[in-house]
Amino acid sequence: MGSRVLTITSGKGGVGKTTSTANLGTALAMQGKKVAVVDSDIGLRNLDAVLGLENRIVYDLVDVVEGQCRLRQALIKDKRLPELYLLPAAQTRDKNAINSIQMQELCQQLRQDFDFVLIDSPAGIEQGFRNAIVGADEIIIVANPEMASVRDSDRIIGLVEAAGKPEPRLVLNRLRPEMVKRGDMMEVADVIEVLGIDLLGVVPDDDMIIVAINKGEPIVYDKRSRAGRAFINAAQRIIGEEVPLDELVEAPTLLERLRRLVGFGPAMTEKRVRS
Amino acid sequence: MGVFQFITGRKKPTPGEVAKERLKVVLSHDRIKVNPELLEQIKADLLTVISRRLEVDEQHVQVQMAREDHWDKLHADVPIKRQKISFEWDPPAHTPVADVLQNNKLRVDVERIEEE
Questions:
Q1: What pLDDT score does B58 carry?
Q2: Angstrom distance (rounded) from CA B22 to CA B14
Q3: Is residue A177 part of a domain?
Q4: Residues A136 and A5: beta-carbon distance below 8 Å
Q5: Which residues in chain A touch residue B2, judged by CB atoms under 8 angstroms apart?
Q6: What is the count of structural domains for chain A?
Q7: Best residue of B4, B18, B20 to probe chain A, by most A CBs closer than 10 Å
Q8: pTM for this structure?
Q9: For testing the chain A interface, which of B23, B24, B69 should be mutated: the one with the most A CBs within 10 Å?
Q10: pLDDT one-digit tens code per residue, A9-26
């Protein structure tokens, strides 16, 4: 199978696109794939910080597109995984600094060196979003189980369809199992029914994600984190493995929380939710 | 059992269920780009056409978008005023049965639609 270009997008801002891109990219690289993560959020660069690579940037995406440097020079090698590379966004330019044709050419170039190219899209439905999806084979929509995010996701599904791309898949992020249990939050099945697309993964809300971003260390490295486990599962589904959807549904039990507090004992993600 | 449930004998929908229902409505509008003005126009058009043949209870006509079984649907509730009405109708010449009919007249009886 050839290389695949996947764009992670959402419409609404702040739902976890960058976190998802960083973690899916890292998880794919952990599986031995050669991965490039591309920050296409020009002017609002963040993927570098989530990956802890913000101090290593010399050239960026716009430099490559404008021919100021070669692609190889702009790609930043990850600290831990030798097969993971970041192409950072320009911070001093705006979304109109590049056009769709240039972006498509960039994707073609990246395909030659990588198994997976993951593009982190900016929020919104304007030029930046269009640039982000133009070269993609597949689209992943990140949504939170709340009205505004699901509504915006539906708009994105329509725009992706209009762009002639295959039906996107959904990563439902920040699910809070205890709220779902109380009936205060929509269930996974509700969101899927309303949007009518396939589910790639469900990521439970996890305070450790903030900690992981603070440290510049993706959550997938934290073996005890449910969110980390969920991203690894989603990455395995991207590769094509059949992974049962077991990453949530129940809030951690008191015992699990105690174990976590003490910091040892079996990882809480090993507990499977009986269905 | 909450107070609401005690009074109504029915369980109050949870915020999650409310969100789902609200989303279904808002998305069906977003998808078809139907705004309230357009719905009013459609309603007026329907009334014009139907009242040509039937006496419609215009006060209680309802036209709205809904999503059922993965389809976006236009629901029109058009109550008919009279208990039983009848009228003469000239079938169009190309209707096959037109030749069969005597004097080219067809009698149509329309029962009032019962409320569910």
A1: 86
A2: 12
A3: yes
A4: yes
A5: none
A6: 1
A7: B20
A8: 0.74
A9: B23
A10: 999 999 999 999 999 999
